[in-house]
Amino acid sequence: MTAITFSIKYHYGDAEHGRLDMYDAAVSFQGFARALSITAHALLNEGEIRKKGNKINGGELYINPSRKGSFEQIVTFVITNKEAIGASIAAAAFYDLIKWTWSKTLEIAYEPQTPHVKKLSERIEPFIGEMEEVLEIPLEQAHRPIKKDNDVVISIKRQRVGEVIRLDSETLEKVSLRVDDEIIQNIKGNVTRYNILSGYGRFYDDKLDRTVSFKVGDDVSSAQKQLLTWSMHYAQEAEGGGKLLFDARRVLTPRGVTKRYLVTNIAQAEV
Hints:
The chain is an alpha+beta fold.
């Protein structure tokens, strides 16, 4: 079995006095447990995304006694399925996947560094878009002590290497999301990635001049869903091709930045 040990450390605020509010700490640990389980399961199961995050096929997470004199929780990730990933590359790939998927969710610039994680990023299916959505609530929970005190900083630290990811008041904003009740009509752009099975995709929004994640609603017809693959194909064939019009609700950050579209209607844009 391969064992990977790291720490979750709380800095500043009450953590400097060796304590945290019990409820806040419990919510934070639960959030980290879910986020780590979702990420570890994807690592060991060819990118399969498990939404509940309460079980890892091929691995287990344990907490060890905290270090005396600091608010630092030691965690060990044990890989029980040795066929899932090679022992020599497991640690690097695990930390790389955490840094890539969590950074995307927290809107921090980072690109995969290891071959194992690069394969996930190069898939036609939008793996990262679906991962972002399932990680948002667990990572918001992980921020719980920061909600009470903006000075608190929480970091995951790799042994003998240093910080892998940091949570603070700025990253809290990225996962404190709300759904706008208003349906925005005729959002023009083209699909760049789409997973037929999950309904998740990526959409280049002409007005925003950037790519936004989307999720297709259950009420969208099969004929309209076929336009998504049409758009993806023709966008690759010719510049400016494959244009669609979305009607969608927006998932917004506290500052009003569009994080995701929840699509209710799809139409082909007129040329």
